[in-house]
Amino acid sequence: MHYTLHQLQIFLKISQAKSVTKAAEELHLTQPAVSIQLKNFQEQFQIPLTELVGRKIYITDFGKEIAEAAENILNQVYAINYKSSVFSGQLAGRLKISVVSTGKYVMPFFLADFVKQHPGVDLVMDVTNKGSVVGSLENNEVDFALVSIVPHSLHVEKLDLLQNKLYLVGKDPVPQSSGKSTKAIFENLPLIFREKGSGTGQTMKEFIDAHKIPVVKKLELTSNEALKQALMAGMGYSIMPLIGIKNELLSGELKIINVNELPIKTMWSLIWLKGKKHSPVADAYLNYLASEKQNIVQTTFSWYENFAQE
Hints:
Layout: H1 5-17, H2 20-27, H3 31-42, E1 50-53, E2 56-59, H4 61-87, E3 93-100, H5 112-117, E4 121-128, H6 130-138, E5 144-147, E6 156-170, H7 182-186, E7 190-194, H8 199-210, E8 217-221, H9 224-232, E9 237-241, H10 246-251, E10 255-257, E11 264-273, H11 280-300, H12 302-305
Parallel strand pairs: 3-4, 3-5, 7-8
Antiparallel strand pairs: 1-2, 5-11, 6-9, 6-10, 6-11
Helix pairs in contact: 1-2, 1-3, 1-4, 2-3
């Protein structure tokens, strides 16, 4: 057998994502490249590792054992690399962060320079919905989580990074919205929600409930990008974080609707379990944020902090 570490990494990611497409996205590779490596890897075994039923890929029992072995091998390789870096005086190890989906517009900017300064640090950032983020933190699977609503179910410590501002958004302006009551503005608007478990969806629902706004037509979508596409297609209106719609506002594809009670303001916070013993890498990252957070906000998010609704 002549499989490579690269093939082990690809197969492990496919087994975790249950999808060649998602694995390619997470590994920043093209789908054809991942498919070719999977094919080359599978040809080295007499027993199938995967089964294709319709358009969905399934991992066989044998494949699951190989994936587990691959994970163990890769962990040993990481350990060797870390030890080598430590002995050469470099900060080394893994930094694991779980991020709510809209947080992908925030978190990379608070990570970029830290990762550049410490090449021995491997970053693992999982972008998913709030429910999965809280679950990974609760199970102690990550060092930190980025959320816009701090979960009350867990005892956590936090570091606030950036204010989160949510506005009513749609493709077309609402006629004569100025001066209208909030309830009147929303009247007859088809609303699009994020799925249950989404922090943005929770915030929007709480606002709708608090103002006793009747929902004329409700659609539900499972990603921020899908929601934006639906709004740009004119399918309805939604309450969305400003941070994720900069380009669409500049291009005129989306418009903010004037509502007196908006924006809703929450906070993007990095949280971790209270009492958690941080690794040297996690400790170093917290120290980095303590000294650089304000500079990052001023240099990268000045447009956002100074945004004024017309």
